[in-house]
Here is the input.
Amino acid sequence: MKIKVGANGYVEGFVTVGDMDGAVAYTGEISAGFDAETCRYYRLVDGALVYDAAKKEAEERHHHDAIRIAELKNALAETDYQIIKCYEYALAGLPAPYDAEALHAERQTRRDEINELEGAGHGGAGCKRILETAEDYKDLM
Here is the structure.
């Protein structure tokens, strides 16, 4: 077997037949769990393939967080029309058609969770500016 190891020491790929650019021969022990799906969780340490469970857990956590962020952003998008209606009514001097305080609180809870997940490095760019007040919306108009 030949394995290709990246600069970080983790396996990037392997072949059992043929060749692969950048791959080196490996004659050590191969664990039963080593395959095309899991090889990226193995490092070459002192000539042995070592499984890194923490890397797999971190990737799974990142994946879960990215899904949660997408769900939260979708939930915000679903209430955008309510915010727009409240803004239109405010500009016209009319009472809001929705409970703006409750709507804001609900949306802020979602934004806080998004910011927490993104700030933890699991879903994106970290500190993103989130529109929080009517004044923020006016600045966009």
